[in-house]
Specification:
By secondary structure, the protein is mostly helical. The chain has one domain (about 1-155). Helix content is about 75%, strand content about 0%. It is built from seven helices and no strands. The protein has helices at about 1-10, 15-30, 40-50, 55-60, 70-85, 90-100, 105-155. The chain starts with a helix and ends with a helix.
C-alpha cells in the first residue's frame, strides 16, 4: 500500500519542494493531538494553500488507525509525560473511574474530566513535539527522494 502511494507521489506534476512541503504538513497533521480531525484539517489546508491532495493525504495517513495510531498515541503520551516530569501511569483515581464507571451521574463526568487532564495534557504536549520533529524530518527526506527520482527520470530519457 505504501509503495503504491509513494509511486503516486513520484508522478505528481508539482515541483518536488512543493510536494515535499505538502507531505511534511500532512505528517505534522498525522502526529498532531487532534484525533478525529486529521482528514478535515488536511482537506482544509490542501484547499486553502492549493496543495496537492495526494501529497498531503499521504503524509496525513501515516497515522493509519489500524497500524500506527496506537504507537503514535503511546509515544505522544510518553514524550509529553517525560517533558512534564510526570510518571507513565494513570492515577489510582483515574483507574477507579475507568474500572467502575457511573455514566448516569454528573459527578462521574466531573471526576473524569479532572482526572482526564492528567493524560490529555501530556498527550497534547508530546503530540505537538512529535508533529514538529517528524515533519521537519519528512520535508528534506521527501524533497531529496523526489528530486533524485526526477534526476534519474531525466537521465533515463536523455
Amino acid at each position: 500500500m505504501f509503495r503504491a502511494t509513494f509511486r503516486r507521489l513520484l508522478t505528481l506534476d508539482d515541483p518536488p519542494e512543493r510536494t515535499a512541503l505538502a507531505f511534511a504538513i500532512g505528517v505534522f497533521i498525522a502526529f498532531s493531538p487532534f484525533l478525529g480531525l486529521h482528514t478535515i484539517l488536511a482537506t482544509l489546508v490542501a484547499f486553502i494553500f492549493r496543495f496537492n491532495k495526494i501529497a498531503i493525504y499521504t503524509g496525513t495517513f501515516i497515522n493509519n488507525p489500524f497500524l500506527t495510531l496506537v504507537p503514535i498515541i503511546i509515544a505522544s503520551y510518553a514524550i509529553g509525560a517525560f517533558l512534564l516530569g510526570q510518571p507513565l501511569r494513570i492515577s489510582p483515581e483515574g483507574l477507579a473511574l475507568l474500572q467502575d464507571p457511573h455514566p448516569l451521574t454528573g459527578d462521574y463526568y466531573r471526576k473524569l474530566v479532572r482526572e482526564g487532564w492528567q493524560v490529555v495534557w501530556p498527550f497534547t504536549i508530546g503530540g505537538m513535539v512529535l508533529s514538529v520533529v517528524c515533519s521537519l524530518i519528512a520535508y528534506p527526506v521527501t524533497s531529496w527522494l523526489l528530486r533524485t527520482h526526477l534526476e534519474r527520470k531525466a537521465a533515463k530519457n536523455n
